[in-house]
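Still learning. Any example?
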Amino acid sequence: MKNFLFLFIAIIFEIIATTALKKSEQFTQLIPSIITLIGYFAAFYFLSFAIRTIPVGFAYAIWSGVGIVLITTIGAIFFKEIPDLPAIIGLSLIIIGVIVINVFSKTTAH
C-alpha cells in the first residue's frame, strides 16, 4: 500500500512539473523552468520507489492515465484548453482502462 502512496506522490509531482512546463515558455521563464526540472526529478524519484513492488507496466498505466486526465483538467481550467467531444471520449476510455486494470487485472497481485 505504501508503494501506491509513492505512485500517487509521483503523479502529483508530474502534474506540477507539466503545468510549470507550460508556464516556462520553452524554458525562458526561470521560476517555472526550475519547478519543471525539480518536479520531474521528484516524480521519477517517487516512481522508482513505487515500481519496487508494483509491476512497471501497471504503475505506468496508472501514472499515465491519471496524469493525462488531471493535466487535461488543469489545462481546461487554467489555460482555457477545452477538450472537444472526441477528446472527452478518449479521456473516458483512458479512465475506464485504468479502472479495468485496477479492478480486474491479476498483474497487481505481485
About this structure: The chain has one domain: 2-104. The mean pLDDT is 93. Helices lie at 2-23, 30-50, 56-78, 85-104.
